[in-house]
Amino acid sequence: MFFVCWTCIQHARTNIIFADYLFGMAIAGFAMDAIHMTLLVQPLHVFHRQKQTQSAHTLPWFEKFIWASELCASPRGVGWNHEVKNLPGHLTNSKKEFVLSRLMSAAKHYLWFDLAQFYVRHDPGFQSSAAFVSQTITRRVLGCAVYLVFQYCMGVVVHALIVIMVVSCTSSEPSSWPNAFGKWEDAYTIRRFWGRTWHQFLRRFLTPFGKKMASFLGFEPGTNGSSYTQLYTAFFVSAIAHLGGDAMIAPSRLGISCSFFVYQALGITFEDMVLAVARRAGVKETKWTRVIGYVWVISWFIVTATQWVTVVGVAGIESGGKAIPSRYFPPSFCDILVNFLGI
């Protein structure tokens, strides 16, 4: 299995930095999920659909194969007994309303994607590693933020279009397709950002690794020892999954992403300590405490995410990758508008 993953990482490079990082991370994520499925649990006995009455291990071979394929295709467990908590609310409106809402979402996010693409194309810092590193810290933070917006919006658009096609052309119901990301207004702590706002496509295998480690160390479920062991194990395993992205864009710089994910566990630990002190002091959650929380989360990611995007981007450029190769992307509406106005 690892040989196949390593072969894919070596031969699937496109020289588009963000795409290579995503492909590499996905391949490594599949490997970690395979370890989870083969060594940590017995899928045929543990997992079942919410309305499933017959245990999967009793199904005929072909039906078992279909069942397993559907399980692997649902990393968030939507409609299964292991459905990830805190997913965006299931939509119960008609298919027509659902498709129209996703089309509107795709159009809105594509406009932001196009604006971010325009900035990245014309920012000299994305043309060479030396130019990027030589920028002022303000320009670098802005560039990294725009690049993350570019990736986020593209992910939302691609997910929305796939969902539209599936719901329109099959019997699949809208309730089976919650949004890929949660609400940004929920992200007033680092813990809530990772647990509610960001995608949850890795949680199916992150949680079992954490529980196994807590059990191995002898911590009782529900204790602080168990909780924080699971927290640090989850981010450590997530860092391992992102090693595939490092290997794809720059094999000689393996591990450059790891510190970012370790920092997240440390940040959440510090955050929990501050919140515990505030609760003992009688501080109640209000609109203003949430505002402080948003400022804290934004400041945290300005520091940690900027460093992460910088080292990954620089490594990718030094290895011959490009931020946005023109031949792979449609013309930017902003470029067309600028050319039309003669600016």
Describe this structure in words.
One of its GO terms (cellular component) is membrane. This is Wax synthase domain-containing protein. By secondary structure, this protein is mainly alpha-helical. It has a domain of 240 residues. Helices cover 66% and strands 0% of the residues. The chain is built from 13 helices and no strands. The longest helix is centred in the middle third of the chain and has 33 residues. The protein is globular. It starts with a helix and ends with a helix.
What is the mean predicted local confidence, pLDDT?
90
Structural class call reads mainly alpha
Major sheet attributes: none
- Portion of residues in beta strands equals under 5%
How does the SSE layout of this entry go?
Blueprint: H1 2-11, H2 17-40, H3 43-46, H4 61-72, H5 95-122, H6 129-133, H7 137-169, H8 190-197, H9 203-216, H10 224-249, H11 258-280, H12 287-318, H13 333-341
Helix pairs in contact: 1-2, 2-9, 2-10, 5-7, 7-12, 9-10, 10-11, 11-12
